[in-house]
Fold:
Amino acid sequence: MSVGKGTWAAVVLALVAGNCLHAMAIGVLQADFRQSYALDPNGHINIQNLYGDVSITAWDRDEVLVEAVKKSPDPKRRDDAQIVVDSSSRELSIRTQYLGSGGEHPASVEYRITVPRKANLENVKLINGGLAISGVAGSVHASSVNGSIRADHLEGQADLSTINGELEAGFQRVGHESAILLRSVNGAIRLSIPPCADAVVSARNLSGGIQSPFGRGVRSTAGHRLRTVMNRGGGRIFLDNVNGGIVIRSSGPLT
Structure:
């Protein structure tokens, strides 16, 4: 039986259409968001995200670049995830708001946010997602319920906490007036600080032990404890953990 050219063309088109529909059915649909907002160099930034990772990087501009990717195999759930930004010259708020469909499998939203170097991360809250912060010289107050936190090249005050996830923080400088608080329930804490830091370091955990080149931890029935004064003291560093070890490292050679 012979098949005409027109019939073959119809078959090819049908196969292509079928493959496209199949890819849409099993793939992950994405929608991108990209917008810049002017912000004072020492402005305040608030971020709330229920599902998805957040990455924050500093740059030498007086503006915030918000990039986001919405992901879901269901286009309706993707559309229900709304990116809401409220901005002024002194404060910027970014949040994910879910509409309509709800359900057990909402879309995730992954953010890439670039901020002025001296900006203050006033309140960064994640529920299901990891957080990465790099190069921020202003204060940082951030938490995640289910997800790890990794921060590096920080210079200001810091309050970082996670419930289920590891917490790793590195500081370029620790001033005489610095206040650093790191907390985790289920996950290790790793801190890196310069050996020239003027600080009082206190650490405690229930299980997992404490490692530090700046002092020696002690063990008791209440868990592990460490307290040491570095150089002239002054700054306050406190690490609190329940299930997971605590490791304090030097970011430079010890004298």
Notes: Residues 194 and 252 are 6 Å apart (CA to CA).
